[in-house]
What we know:
By secondary structure, the protein is α+β, with helices and mostly antiparallel strands. 37% of the residues lie in helices and 25% in strands. The protein contains four helices and eight strands. The strands form two sheets. It has a four-stranded antiparallel β-sheet with strand order 1-8-3-6. Strands 2-7-4-5 form a four-stranded antiparallel β-sheet, with no helix packed on it.
Amino acid sequence: xxxxxxxxxxxxxxxxxxxxxxxxxxxxxxxxxxxxxxxxxxxxxxxxxxxxxxxxxxxxxxxxxxxxxxxxxxxxxxxxxxxxxxxxxxxxxxxxxxxxxxxxxxxxxxxxxxxxxxxxxxxxxxxxxxxxxxxxxxxxxxxxxxxxxxxxx
Length: 153
């Protein structure tokens, strides 16, 4: 699990203060829609408590939940990569307390400060890689062979 401490651990104290100074603590009630697939990604969150469901639009059906995020996890990474559009939708499953960051401000800080930028890109890249690995594992559970030997246990 990716945590806010992982991001802060990679930063010198003065950079930690920079992020802490621009962070906004938010409380979001259950069933709050945070963002929609294809819309502008203008912020991101670190979840302190609660859960958020990530979902994907399915034509003619309800959105399918593809992952649920919880305590310590990064919510949103599309804000860091052009064209800055969400790849999924997100809705709170329970009340969520989180730290919210303005994406434009963080991108500007990353551009002007290579130490901060490198740490942020590493943090987001690790998060994306961990989630890709999790997705592959779930796909194998759904579609992979039931047994590697082909014999029943």
